[in-house]
Amino acid sequence: MKISSTLQTDLKNAYLTPKIGVSSTADGSFLKQDSYQLAKDLGKEIVDQGGIVVTGASSGFPYWAAQGAKQAGGLSVGYSPAISPKEHTDIYRLPLDYMDLVTFTGFGFPGRDLIFTRSCDAIIIGPGRIGTIHEFSIAYEDGKPLGVLESDDWETDEILKMIIEKSHRQNPYIVFDKDPKVLVRKMMDMIRQQRGEQV
C-alpha cells in the first residue's frame, strides 16, 4: 500500500502523540445512565486535547470512551485478551466497533492488562472492579501517570485512595478529579513532565 507524502509527514512523529488509556468496567449494568455520557466526554476530551484513546478493547465504559473518541474524529486503539478477531467476538463476546487498530494479544485478561498499560503514556481510571484495580496496580507500580475519575455514582475512586494510602509505595504522578476535561489536561501535563518537556 502506497502512503501519500502528506500522511507520511503526519506519521513521522506519530509515536510522540500522547496515548491515554481508559481503564474501567466492561460491565456497565451497575452504572447509572449518566456514566455513558461521562465516558463519551472523556474519550472526546482525550482527542480534543491531542491524544489517542487506548482501551482493553472491551465493552462498557471503555467502549463508550472509544465511541466518544471516534465521534470527535480521533484515533482509538484496543488491546484484546483474545488471540484472534473470532475469539474476541465469539468467546470473549467483546465488540470491535469504534476501534481503528486492535492488537490481539492472546494472553487473556491478566496478560492483556500488562500489555495495555505498558502501551500507554498515562492511564485514566473510571468505575471498575477487580480488572480495573489490576490495571491500576500495574500502572501504579510502573510509575505511570494516573488520573482517577471521581463520582458519587461509584466507589472505585474511594477504594483506590485506600489502596494508595496503604501501599507503602509512592507514585508522584497521580491525580483525582470529577471533570473529564480537567483530568485529561492534568494527564497531558504529567506526560510532558515525564518527557522533560515544558509544562
Q: What are the salient characteristics of this protein?
A:
Rossmann fold, seven-stranded parallel beta sheet, 7 strands, disordered N terminus, 8 helices, alpha/beta, single chain, globular, 199 residues
Structure description:
It is a single chain. The protein has one domain: Rossmann fold. Helix content is 46%, strand content 15%. It contains 8 helices and 7 strands, in the order αβαβαβαβαβαβαβα. The protein has a 7-stranded parallel β-sheet, sandwiched between helices. Strand 3, helix 4 and strand 4 form a beta-alpha-beta unit. The radius of gyration is 16 Å and the shape is globular.
Question: How are the elements arranged and paired?
Answer:
Blueprint: H1 5-11, E1 19-23, H2 33-48, E2 52-55, H3 60-71, E3 76-80, H4 85-91, E4 101-104, H5 108-118, E5 122-125, H6 130-141, E6 146-149, H7 156-166, E7 174-177, H8 180-195
Note the overall shape. Answer: globular
Largest beta sheet: what is the strand line-up? Answer: 4-3-2-1-5-6-7
Question: What is the structural class?
Answer: alpha/beta
Biggest sheet, in brief?
7 strands, parallel
As an assembly, this protein is single chain
The beta-strand count equals: 7
Low-confidence stretches: 1-8
- CATH topology-level fold name: Rossmann fold
In the CATH hierarchy, what is the architecture at level 2? Answer: 3-Layer(aba) Sandwich
Fraction in helix: 40-55%
Count up the domains: 1
Count, helices? 8
Element-by-element helix/strand order = HEHEHEHEHEHEHEH
